[in-house]
Structure formats: C-alpha cells, structure tokens
Amino acid sequence: MGKPLEGIRVLDLTRVLSGPYCTMILADMGAEVIKIETPGKGDDSRTYPPFDRGISAYYANLNRNKKSVALNLRDDKAKEVLRSLIKTADVIVENFKPGTMDKMGFAYDVVKALNPQIIYASISGFGQTGPYRLLPGYDVIAQAMSGMMSVTGWPDSPPTRTGTAIGDVLGGLNCCIGILAALQGRNKEKHGERIDVGLVDASVSAMETITEIYMVENRIPKRAGNRYEFIYPYDSFEAADGWIVIGVGNDAIWERFCEAVEHADWFAEPRFKRNRDRVAANVELHALVTEWTKTRKGKDIIELLRQHSVPCAPIHTIADVVADEHIAGAREMICEIDHPVEGKMRITGNPVKFTEADHVTYAKAPTLGKDTKEILQDLLHMDEKEAAYFLK
Questions:
Q1: Domain 9-206+335-388: assigned CATH number
Q2: What stretches in the chain show pLDDT beneath 50?
Q3: Distance between CA atoms of residues 66 and 369, nearest Å
Q4: Distance of alpha carbon 183 from alpha carbon 343, whole angstroms
Q5: Distance in angstroms (rounded) separating the CA atoms of residues 153 and 86
Q6: Which class does domain 234-316 fall in?
Q7: Pairing state of beta strands 91-94 and 9-13?
Q8: What pLDDT was estimated at residue 212?
Q9: Hey, where are the domains in the chain?
Q10: Of 56, 209, 257, 338, which residue is 20 to 30 A from 202 by alpha carbon distance?
Q11: Whole-angstrom Cα distance, residue 240 to residue 298?
C-alpha cells in the first residue's frame, strides 16, 4: 500500500524542536521532507548534546527521513531557488519569529501567488496575531504562560517545568494535525491553507479540565504532586524498593483494589464509597495505601494488582524504558538506524502504527547540505554550472 503521505513534498524551514518534530512525523509517514539549512551552520540543534561520534543525537533523532539542502536565504539566487521549490511543494513549514518570512520575501500572499495550492504552516511562541505576537517564545515560556508550571510540582515546591519540552512538542503535534487536515481539505476545496500555531495556545489547550475548574468553580487549581484532581486513588505510592503508580479510575476498580489488598473495611467505609468522597479524603487515603505499599516490593504489588485488573505501573527510569520488552521491543519505540557518519545509533520510534500501510522505516538524518546537488539538478533541472554556485 505504501506510506500514507507518499507523494507529498514538504519544504522544512524549521529548526531546533517544535518545527522539526512536526516535519519528523510527516517524514516518518512517507512525505518527502526537504530541510533548508544555512550553509556552514545548519539547524542550531546540530550543536546540541548529546553527541554520538561527533554527531548531535538531538538533531539526528528529529531529522531522520529528511533531505538537507544548504541555501543562504539572504542571497538573491538562493531565494530564487526557494521560489522554484515552492512551486513544486505541497507544504511549507517555518518556525521563525512572526514577520521574518515577510522580510525575506516569502509572506503567505507571495507564496500563495507562486503556488495557490500550497499549505503554509507557521509555528511561533504566541502565534501570528495578537499583542504578544512579536515576543520571543520558547518552551519554558509556553509552560509558564499557559498555567502549566503553576500546577506542576508539589504543594510546597515552586512552580515546575515538566521534565521534557512539552510546549514545543505540543506545538509540533498541533501543527502536524493542522497540516493533515489542510491536505484533506485541499482534496475537497482545491486550494491551499494558512496554518498558525502558537506554543502558548497549544499548551493552554492541553490544560483541558484544569482551566475548567477555575471557570466553573472560580477556584485557582494548585500544585498537587502526582495526585489527579478528579479521581482517587490515582497517585504515586512508595514501595519497599522504589515507587509505583496506581490508577483507580472508577468505583468498580476501587472495589477490585480493596479486594486485592484485602481491605474490605476500606470498601465498606462510607467516606471512601464514591469517587468524589475519595477525592475529598485523598490525604487520609494516601496514607492508608502507602502504609500497605511500603511493606511490599513494587514488582509484587504490580503483579497482584494486575491480577485484579487494577491499573498500575512501575515508575520507569529512562534506562528501564529503553530496555522494556513491550515499549522498546514489541512496540518498537526504540529503534536502531544507520548513524549519519558510521555504524548504527538508536532513536525513538513513531508512536502511530498502521495496519494496511507500509511499516514505518527510518533513514538516517542527513549531513548538512547532503542533498543540495540532487535537489538542484534532479528536481529543479539545473545544469552543473548553475548548481556549482550553491555547492561552494
């Protein structure tokens, strides 16, 4: 059947994380992604650790399955090459500060005139409109201004950033969703689209019911550690040899949990009968459950609770994730690919699995400008003399 996005060409003018994450997904699904990079320097993330045999694994993971063309977009001849590429493309993605593409001569209206069916996607900190549009925006700013940091951490800790750059990832995901929707829309309406994604907007959207608490109850949600605001016990608990999580998502699971831990008295207790009661009594209930878990090894607790269909899990370290037979093995979330220079390296896999489409495969990330000659000569039909100007 092939891959779902085979035949779609994407011009990738993004760098670092949010944009490259978006175009990585498109490339994994079969799109031809042509990454435009500054000659001699490339994407900033080429200099980001960790390094594997002199190559940034940060860059290599996010830019697998892509081609690299080195063009200095301050140069008029390079701009002409980009104009020619735009005429052949389905999608262009950029994550510059708003207004930068306009100054370069590639505002949406200009690009649309070159290719009326193109999908033009922009990712920025605050979006293309509004009073904050020109402010610099990074992941930590998105997490801060979305309210995410205000509810992350423990009651006695300062506001806390999540352990990964989730604002950037959410921005990339939402941009990818927008592009896929626009491609489908183009099939019906026969015209392109302008997509505008702000990292702050994407992070605000991800706050979902946390924001609803304030708007409905006029109560500002506070940091609650690993406890979930709406369900209990749905938390982390200390075992004799580490930490686990238990997710009692409804009253039926609560009954199975009490049976598993041989505490019929908890199930009979009126204060714990319904989920709303358990949420109200979360401090007392956390202490009772912890008293039980602390005397047992995490593996034994998980085995027992799973026998009673109670959701639970160990809290993995990254080493545990990479070695996990289900995550890394059966689900192929840790994959081995060719290293950009020599040998092999490991990357994280694509979480979207298709049944009918071809299996997702991973080509190594390109060295800087690796595909410049091929794109200029094979796609744009330049002769050797013309192409030589860009291959210095």
A1: 3.40.50.10540
A2: none
A3: 11
A4: 37
A5: 45
A6: alpha beta
A7: parallel
A8: 94
A9: 9-206+335-388, 234-316
A10: 56
A11: 7
> In terms of residues, how long is the chain?
392
Q: How much is the pLDDT for 359? A: 85
Three-state SS across the chain?
CCCCCCCCEEEEECCCCHHHHHHHHHHHCCCEEEEEECCCCCCHHHHCCCEECCEEHHHHHHCCCEEEEECCCCCHHHHHHHHHHHHHCCEEEECCCCCHHHHHCCCHHHHHHHCCCCEEEEEECCCCCCCCCCCCCCHHHHHHHCCCHHHCCCCCCCCCCCCCCHHHHHHHHHHHHHHHHHHHHHHHHCCCEEEEEEHHHHHHHHCCHHHHHHHHHCCCCCCCCCCCCCCCCEEEEEECCEEEEEECCCHHHHHHHHHHCCCHHHHHCHHHCCHHHHHHCHHHHHHHHHHHHCCCCHHHHHHHHHHCCCCEEECCCHHHHHHCHHHHHHCCCEEEEECCCCCEEEEECCCCCCCCCCCCCCCCCCCCCCCHHHHHHHHCCCCHHHHHCCCC
Whole-angstrom distance, CA of residue 251 vs CA of residue 273: 8
CB of 207 closer than 8 Å to CB of 146: yes
Q: Which residues are known to be catalytic?
A: 168
Q: How many CB atoms lie within 10 A of CB 286?
A: 18
The pairing of strands 51-52 and 55-56 is antiparallel
The whole-number pLDDT of residue 70 equals 97
Largest CA distance in the chain: 85
- pLDDT attached to residue 358: 85
pLDDT at residue 1 in the model: 72
Question: Cα(234)–Cα(34) distance, rounded to whole angstroms?
Answer: 45
| Arithmetic mean of pLDDT over the chain | 96
pLDDT score at 374: 96
pLDDT value of residue 226: 94
What pLDDT does residue 244 have? 98
Residue 153 has phi, psi (to 5 degrees) of 120, -165
The token pair at 307 is 């026998």
User: What is the chain's alpha carbon radius of gyration, rounded to the nearest angstrom?
Assistant: 25
| Sign of the dihedral defined by the CA atoms of residues 297, 300, 303, 304, in that order | negative
- Rounded to whole angstroms, the Cα distance separating 67 from 364 reads 10
Q: Which residues contact 130 (CB under 8 A, 6 or more apart)?
A: none
